[in-house]
Structure formats: structure tokens, C-alpha cells
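quick one: zinc ion bound model?
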Amino acid sequence: MAISEQTSIPSTPPITSNPTTSTTTSPPPDCHDSLMPSQFPAVPAVFGPVPNRAYHEGFMRKAIEMAELALASDETPVGCVFVHNGEVIGRGINGTNASLNGTRHAEFVGLAEIMAKHPQRILTQTDLYVTVEPCIMCASALRQYGIRAVYFGCLNDRFGGCGGVMQIHADRGVDPPYPVYGGLFREEAIMLLRRFYVQENEKGWRQAMKTAREVSLTKRLFAAPEPKPKKNRELKTEILPVTNVNPTANLTRTSTPAG
Ligand SMILES: [Zn+2]
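yep, here:
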């Protein structure tokens, strides 16, 4: 329909000094206005109670097994499974070392498996079990994909996006937040990471010793001093408890995952 003089957009009225009566001084609406966080359901505390914990621990055990596979593959031991209607539909281990690709986190590996077989909307009825808190990158992707819930083992105190550093899962945003439950098999998840770092240190030290033996005596005298083992090669087994349950509060740092 052609716009007649009667239906065309009226000319802009003069700006008045009273903002309550002006129609031109208000900022234009943006996409966030209709999606204020207050309209989203509140998410529980990250280290709060886990409803039906035994059920979820069964799937977290599978995630731990994936992390053990990562450790055996010389990857940072992070593993995950995605579960839909009680069935694992995606699984992943950290693959950044083998691929030399810093985005090959366990969650992205698992998401790729799901996307190859299912429509994206299946994720809105899917839960993620991952041994280490999702990083900021993964936490954001999971929110954009509409993951139903995330269960994790230990905090990611360097890059965590679900309470460890940032609260991507619950921050103000366009996409609905998702609940996160931390602490399932936390000790196992931490010990896997510690075993990895000890393992990597020992490998580095052995390689340095091998290199030193291979160089000529002259070169060793002038350029390659005998390497010394790092002081922190021993495996520490003490695990401090998480001291609070509020994701926005000051969280105890106990792990140092790489991604
Ligand atoms: Zn990640």
C-alpha cells in the first residue's frame, strides 16, 4: 500500500523542555530492552545443593573418564559429556596440544559431535558434564546455544566463565542464563590436573637432561649448564575446600587449568 499523506510518518514535533511529554528525546529501543535479566529465571549458586546428585554423578564419572583419556593423550585433562534424555549424545576431551588450536576445548569438541547429528535446538534439552568449569569462551558459546544446565568438577581459576572469574552463565545478556552446579568429583578433577603438570614437568626435565648429554663437552661447558629438576615436581594431594557458595563472591583458588 502506498503511503498517503494521512498515513505517512508525521513530522517531528518540536523538542520540549519537559522530557515526560517529549516523544523525541527518549533513546531508541534496543534488543536488550525486552530481555532484561529480571525476566529470566534466577540461577542457583554455583556451589549450592545439587538436586538428584547421585544421578548427575553418574554422568560426571563419564566426564572424568574422558579427562583420563586426555591425560593419557598428553592433553590438559579436561573431559566432558553432553546428555539428552539420559543418553550421551556428545563427548569431548581437550585437544589443543595435538591440534595446535587453542579453541579445541572439550566442550567445543563435544558440540561439534552433536551438531553433526542433531539440530541445534536439541541443546535446550541437553545438560553438560565437564570436569573443569567452562572457560569464558565456552561458557559464552553454551549460553548462545541455549544449554539447559552445566555440571562441573573444579573451578577454572584463570579463565572460568561460570563463577571462577566471570559469570557468563548468569550475567545480563540477550540469551537466557543457565544454571551451573559445581563440585561434582571436584577432588578427582583437581588431581587429574596436578598429575598432568607433574607429568609435563618431568618430561621437560628428562628432555633437558637428554639434550645436555648430547651436546659436546665444550658446548656444555660454555652454553649448557646441567639442568636441575624443578622443586615442585612432587604431586601434592592436599585439596582445600571451597569456602563459599556464591558465584559472585571471592572464590577459593585451588586449580590452574589451561583452558
Ligand atoms: Zn573452554
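The first strand starts at residue 79 and ends at 84.
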